[in-house]
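pasting for the record
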Amino acid sequence: MDGIAFIIAALGGYFLGSIPFGLFITRAAGLGDIREIGSGNIGATNVLRTGRKDLALATLLLDSFKAGLAIVGFALVFGDRNVGLIAGVFAFIGHCYPIWLRFKGGKGVATYAGLLLFASWKGFLIAAPIWLAVFFFSRISSLAALTAATLVPIGGWLLGETQFAVGVLVVLSALVFWTHRANLKRLLSGTEPKFGQKKKDAA
């Protein structure tokens, strides 16, 4: 992979991923600053806490699409799938740590899902049913995300993904665990709230 292509893909992916769609959408809808609601996160799960399912869906799709756009766009420009994967990784990082919001962004689940859909359909085939099944039975979004993140690289490897792609999936899954470290602590202590349940009620 050419060094210049890597740098361009990394920077372009980061700035594309750093677009805070959840913040823009909720402000445009007159709901104020989403960072002052619920968990303070700018992602789709927190947008859903406003009671606006339409806005949450829009946030989910846009946060997913920006990673996919980074992957497809840079892969086409440079004619190299691996360059696209690098752009996708940095789109994920940009979403989680946007420079415009003092590096306080989302947790990256929707962005990771969009990345998988466009870059590794084998990984997506593993992640989607696992997330849905775990969330259906537990009603805990973070548990579903962490379970899927754990199994996606393994599934991608078993289904014949390239070594580079599997390495990317490992890095992204590790980042999902990092962005969910507070959730992980609550899961281990049994205080992580279920969907629709307030944290103080769970405690």
